[in-house]
Amino acid sequence: MFYEKFGLVNTAEMFAHAMAHRYAIGAFNFYNMETLVAISTAARETNSPIILAVSESALEYMGDDMLMSMISGLKLSTNERVALHLDHGHSFESCARAIDIGFSSVMIDASALPFQENIALSARVAEYAHARDVTVEAEIGIIGGHEDKNTHAANQLYTNPNDAIEFVARTNVDSLAIAIGTSHGAYKRRSDSEQLRFDILREIAYRLPNFPLVLHGASSVPKLLVDTINENGGNLNTARGIPTDQLRQAILMGICKINVDTDSRLAFTAGVRLEMSENPNEFNPRKYLGLGTSAVYENTINEITNIMDSTDRLR
Predict the structure, then answer these.
(1) Taking residues 262-274, what's their average pLDDT?
(2) What whole-number distance in Å separates Cα of residue 271 and Cα of residue 267?
(3) Pairing of strands 151-153, 213-215
């Protein structure tokens, strides 16, 4: 397996352990050296397995060689149980490219296609990936919201449990992202009373026992980060995330992977905005980027500890 040269692992064992012990693996998106260092340091200090997630647009931004050089620079050991995951790959070519440069896990997101076409494309990616011992995530249903050009949808469509059963049987994918009311971006709910569709999750988990289920668009959007941004020139007044208690309930009901992107973006932006507001004469990028890095690190520690419950899970 090419990814082993970077000290990476695929997600098979980490998901099995998470499901057996009722915790979740955090899949934290990163976009540059600062966010990568913050997230990986938090995982190491909490003794937590982790997934480093990269979207198609982030891969384009960093470039293949720069990205994999940064991963190499982490000096990972397979004992740390770190996976490098392509988040929302939209084509066979995108997934194959990630696998060929050293990713240990890929997501093929063909959820916008008709159901049969989603099955066909996901099965093709799974066949290519499994020949290289890479694990594959797919998605059915539509998770609404907007994060970037790769993760956006105007509408939301809850996952049909019958479709989930058929999809897993026919694609041979290793995990499945389901739509139960989460959404991408910082505006995940219209009111505090909205609840995730636990009835859908319960039925899918019952009919797919011991099969890894994933939540996208599940950032908690911490109020402290939103307030810090708004108090220092931002405008995120209606931002609202998924409450921690609902995320914990989803984990206890069978979710074993939760994606975190928005919270890291908020943390980094809050740190940078606060530094530039309090020190308007500062123009050394290392200073304000350093505050952004620290904020992402602290947020990652919090989510690993208080949402994922993955602290000290390395065997």
Answers:
(1) 96
(2) 6
(3) unpaired
* 193 has a pLDDT exceeding 50: yes
Q: Which of 105, 107, 119, 103 is nearest to 143 (CA)?
A: 107
Q: Hey, what are 311's tokens?
A: 């602290």
Please give the share of the chain, as a percent, with pLDDT higher than 70: 92
d(CA 165, CA 160): 9
The active-site residue out of 64, 87, 192, 227 is: 87
Pairwise CA distance, residues 242 & 219, whole Å:
6
* Residue (of 246, 145, 243, 141) closest to 187 by Cα position: 145
Q: Is 282 helix (H, G, I), strand (E, B) or coil?
A: coil
Contact 296, 267 (CB under 8 A): yes
Residue type, 257: K
Residue 156 has pLDDT above 70, yes or no: no
Single out the residue of 22, 52, 23, 63 nearest to residue 305, CA to CA.
23
Model confidence over 296-309: pLDDT tens digits? 999 999 999 999 99
Which pLDDT tens digit goes with each residue over 11-69? 999 999 999 999 999 999 999 999 999 999 999 999 999 999 999 999 999 999 999 99
What are the residue ranges of helices labelled H in the chain? Answer: 12-21, 33-46, 56-62, 64-73, 92-101, 115-130, 161-171, 198-207, 223-231, 244-252, 262-278, 285-303
What is the pLDDT confidence band of residue 154, given thresholds at 50, 70 and 90?
A: very low
Give the Å distances, CA to CA, from 246 to 19, 181, 235: 17, 11, 26
DSSP calls for 73-116: HT---GGG-EEEEEEEE-SHHHHHHHHHHT-SEEEE--TTS-HH
Give the rounded distance of the alpha carbon of 127 from its chain centre.
Answer: 23
The answer to whether residue 237 scores a pLDDT higher than 90 is no
Active site residue 87: yes
